[in-house]
């Protein structure tokens, strides 16, 4: 059994499982539904209409809220027409002016805590900060990971028991507790609502990858079918993930790496006691196009997210050379030494599998993954046999 053959079997099984899961209804997410709720109109006076609302699209870049009553057909309200909306599950959205660059822009934010001091989250992931703190008489203050502690210390200065702790954790559940505690501390008689934690949504991401790759060659007449390992070489890639929902995505792109190897081995000539020594020298480069289904654990707002992906890939060899030297250490061997130079080229196909970890890097994501790829059937020019490749890659990817 050749090196990587067992991982190859695992990859084949994973491809089938991933494709099966990807075709289930769960992979495509849930659609919206009408629930009892309300909308607050932006017109003067700000009327509150009660009936049934569908908030499925309320958290998008171009938010929309569907509203209907028993007497009125469904109507769509946009950002300019609303001040707030909510349903019977406790899910609420509020329109706010938030700082973005040199100006303030309107945005529909999800309410996490409603009270004299309120906490909002950005459901789109497109605003400067994931969370915003709103206090009476002030515009919502952005809470970015790199400076949220300073903002909270200043904002909670009138609650010494909270501002003096200096042990803030940057997570939605923790921020909700801080704001709720602050309201009880400073406004003990005020009414407060603690809403469900905002659920972020994955979005299309483009990535740039750099890493190290190692190629293994399989020659059809290699003794025992063992691999001919190459040296570590740098690899680069342009990648993309296209989300189906928060846990399933289509992965594709292009990767490029060179390869080089120099391997020797000896074996007995069949039917004799003479040794024959083979020396293989290869060099070239390969371009790959993977197409895979990625399964990512945990929610998008989590600090770290493991992922696994499996699929297929096409490969094309560029300027690939193979030099073969066959020699006989014993001068009495009744065979001549042989040296050949061949070209391996053309298109190959095979399987692709990768496992790794996604980490936040500001609004971007940093991916660290180990990838295995098998390619079958590269033609050798002028010969009747094919050459198989296996490749292991350790990559670091910056997803914007």
UniProtKB/TrEMBL annotation:
<dbReference type="Pfam" id="PF13568">
    <property type="entry name" value="OMP_b-brl_2"/>
</dbReference>
<feature type="domain" description="Outer membrane protein beta-barrel">
    <location>
        <begin position="196"/>
        <end position="370"/>
    </location>
</feature>
<dbReference type="InterPro" id="IPR025665">
    <property type="entry name" value="Beta-barrel_OMP_2"/>
</dbReference>
<protein>
    <submittedName>
        <fullName>PorT family protein</fullName>
    </submittedName>
</protein>
């Amino acid at each position: 059994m050749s090196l990587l053959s067992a991982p190859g079997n695992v990859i084949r099984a994973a491809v089938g499982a991933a494709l099966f899961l990807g075709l289930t209804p769960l992979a495509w997410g849930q659609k919206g539904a009408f629930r009892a709720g309300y909308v607050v109109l932006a017109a003067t006076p700000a009327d509150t209409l009660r009936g049934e609302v569908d908030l499925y699209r309320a958290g998008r870049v171009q938010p929309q809220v569907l509203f209907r009553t028993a007497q009125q057909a469904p109507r769509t309200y946009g950002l300019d027409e609303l001040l707030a909306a909510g349903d019977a599950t406790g899910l609420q959205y509020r329109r706010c002016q938030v700082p973005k660059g040199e100006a303030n822009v309107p945005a529909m934010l999800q309410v996490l805590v409603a009270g004299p001091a309120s906490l909002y989250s950005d459901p789109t992931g497109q605003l400067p900060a994931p969370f915003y703190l709103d206090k009476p008489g002030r515009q919502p203050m952005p809470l970015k990971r790199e400076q949220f502690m300073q903002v909270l210390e200043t904002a909670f200065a009138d609650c010494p028991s909270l501002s003096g702790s200096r042990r803030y954790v940057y997570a939605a559940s923790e921020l909700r507790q801080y704001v709720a505690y602050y309201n009880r501390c400073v406004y003990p008689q005020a009414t407060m609502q603690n809403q469900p934690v905002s659920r972020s949504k994955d979005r299309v991401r483009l990535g740039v990858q750099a890493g190290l790759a190692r190629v293994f060659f399989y020659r059809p007449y290699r003794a025992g079918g063992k691999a001919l390992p190459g040296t570590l070489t740098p690899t680069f890639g342009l990648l993309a993930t296209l989300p189906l929902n928060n846990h399933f995505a289509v992965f594709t792109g292009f990767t490029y790496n060179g390869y080089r190897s120099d391997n020797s081995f000896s074996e007995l000539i069949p039917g004799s006691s003479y040794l024959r020594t083979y020396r293989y020298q290869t060099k070239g480069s390969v371009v790959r196009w993977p197409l895979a289904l990625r399964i990512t654990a945990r929610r998008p707002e989590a600090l770290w997210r493991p992922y696994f992906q499996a699929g297929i890939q096409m490969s094309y060899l560029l300027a690939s050379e193979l030099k073969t030297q066959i020699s006989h250490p014993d001068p009495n061997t009744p065979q001549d030494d042989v040296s050949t130079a061949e070209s391996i080229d053309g298109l190959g196909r095979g399987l692709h599998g990768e496992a790794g970890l996604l980490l936040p890097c500001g609004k971007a994501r940093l991916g660290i993954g180990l990838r295995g790829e098998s390619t079958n059937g590269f033609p050798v020019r002028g010969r009747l046999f094919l050459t198989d490749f296996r490749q292991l890659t350790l990559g670091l990817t910056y997803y914007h």
